[in-house]
């Protein structure tokens, strides 16, 4: 789906409608000490390393894209998301 690079939105800091730049949200690097990773390593990193049995869940193919909207005036950043599931996002 095509998404514009700029959008006129309400800025809470400026208290008026201003132009916002939309950037696609990218998550940071995962923590190696997080509970899920520690648990996974505990189950797979000892013995003869047999297959770790887990409950298989089917992943959904599409996700709702998340954006970060940055105000052009005061540079305040606000999370912004489209409430539609889509495979691909193209910014124009």
Commentary on this structure:
A four-stranded antiparallel sheet has the order 2-3-4-5, with no helix packed on it. A hairpin with a 4-residue loop joins β2 and β3. It has a domain of 58 residues: Roll (Nuclear Transport Factor 2, Chain: A). The protein is built from one helix and six strands, in the order βββαβββ.
Protein traits:
single chain; 92 residues; mainly beta; Nuclear Transport Factor 2, Chain: A; four-stranded antiparallel beta sheet; two-stranded parallel ribbon; 11% helix; 33% strand; elongated
In short:
The protein has 92 residues and is mostly beta strands.
User: Biggest sheet, open or closed, and with what strands and sense?
Assistant: 4 strands, antiparallel
Distance between the termini: 10 Å
Shape: elongated
- The percentage helix is 10-25%
State Rg: 20 Å
Q: Please mark out the parts with pLDDT under 50 across 5 or more consecutive residues, or reply none.
A: none
CATH class of the domain at 1-27 and 62-92: Alpha Beta
Could you tell me the strand content as a percent range?
Answer: 25-35%
Strand order of the largest sheet: 2-3-4-5
The CATH topology of the domain at 1-27 and 62-92, please?
A: Nuclear Transport Factor 2, Chain: A
Average pLDDT, rounded to a whole number, is 89
